[in-house]
Task: structure prediction
Amino acid sequence: MRVSLHHTPFTLIVFSAFMRAASSRGKQHIMFQTFDVTSRPDQGPPRLKTLRAELSSEGFDGFLIPRSDLHQGEYVAPRDERLAWLTGFTGSAGFCAVLPEVAGVFIDGRYRVQVRDQVALEAFTPVPWPETGLDDWLKDNAKNGAIIGFDPWLHTKSEITKLQQGLEGTGITIKASENLIDRLWEDQPEPPKGTIRIHPDSFAGRSHVDKIKDLASDLLSSGQSTALISLPDSICWLLNIRGADVPRNPVVHALAILNADGNVALFVDPDKLDDGVRVHLGDTVTLHEPEDFQEALKAIEGKMRVDPASAPLAVFDLLGEKAVEGKDPCVMPKACKTDAEISATREAHLRDGAAMVRFLAWLEDERDALLSGSGEALTEIDVVTALEGFRRATNSLEDISFETSAGTGPNGAIVHYRVSTETNRVVQPGDLLLVDSGGQYVDGTTDITRTIAMGTPSEDAKLAFTRVLQGMIAIHRARWPEGLSGRYLDSLARAPLWMAGQDYDHGTGHGVGVFLSVHEGPQRISRVSDVPLKPGMILSNEPGYYREGEFGIRIENLIVVNPAPPLKGADDRKMLSFENLTWVPIDKRLILANRLSADERHWLNTYHQDVRVRLAHLLDEETRAWLTAATAPI
Result:
């Protein structure tokens, strides 16, 4: 954290607390987040040339390089950063299709700006996806009779089946292969060996033995003898454990087979387990080396349930007719949190909210110094460092839940912006500063975005911010009949922007775990979601607006689905609604109050009153005074 002469005594106290927290927790590094440049565009072309030579020698006319690992997680270990190694693109979603004359990097709306900064455009062509499907792109760019290679451990059956169907009649075929990137990547990192820890039953709400028993019973009633569990967060949820194999996500890389007799075979590196975890797992869980997994599949008797949307295609190839397509049995019960999980995450959000308020109070001090010309320059790295410091000062932070995005001015328009030593920008008077961040605590995972005016914002920025706020409020106030998915709510958040001819190119909300992945399926608030929302599901509510080269706006709270309270005169039908989890002020300097309806103003004032009531006892007197002003009614 930067410390300059104009800092208040309060800021110095918090800085000291941050340092004490890092020391008392025995951390080797003060910061979780780093600002290194993780890839460079100039490395892409020579690596692409080498890959094309390898394709030619193998008789391939193309090769697919996904972002995913064999667990199909959004976040991957350094060993599995194959897409970044080849192309330089570091976004959390996307893939590359390499042909002899063209290499397409497929990215969704979140990464349209970022990809152009990270790849060598003379070698790689950004492709808007999913608007342009891989099958259509191959039809336009691959020669007739082309053979496209892919690693069957890194692609799901659903993914490959869809591609094959799209290529029918074209003469283009896809063929399973060993991974050619792994062959070429000489300094590829080793597989992760993060230590496994026990997740207490008091936070989980149920023991792993009870979870296994219930899922095994369902499996038996379905006539299936086993089920494959390949998603790391499913394994962690089922066994009440947490890992450290993926940055920012407390998950373990392992594979598991759930048996209908109520036992689980866990294939995991034994170095990750200590005696305490072995005792916790007990006789219900048998431990096996990862190298034994393929032989175990071949020895399966009866039918095995395998999720075609998350399991590698290679599993289906090994099982043959013994594979039965079906959903991962952990996904829905994991998504619908227990009362204990919801109670725990409420506490985590209060703790995190207090840290955010301290950060915002510090940031206002920095803003005032910036405007008066009495302070040092404030950079994006300063902002990220300070925020992590305030979270660490809680003495409860296990990790950040993702790389903090602190984009000022034009960098805020990069949806998933990650500041580095090369991109680090100085905050300018009048900038909008978008800060998207979160914390991992043993009792919950947080994710919050606030956009802050660092000076006097333009009328145009205020208009856009107010529309985004109206969309966020609409989601918070929503009531809907049981059985509807998030696609039915998505337009509520966008309607104020649509009326102005504006929109944003990402979903309105994603699922969130409890001390698990900050992006958790299958629940979403998105126009493509078809999963019904159910009580206990935690989601984000995060509409936004981005003007390339100028500013970015996003406001994000986490919410949980509850049965809706009864209304006088309402129909006799079951309805659902949202409970708010995030308690942090929204910058009133960016709100055009006369554009809000009476109901919207009432919601905002009530929300801010609740923020004061819930957080006041966690704050010192000076910060309480700041919070009182920041949450005064409009």
Residues 165 and 379 are 50 Å apart (CA to CA). The longest helix spans residues 339-372.
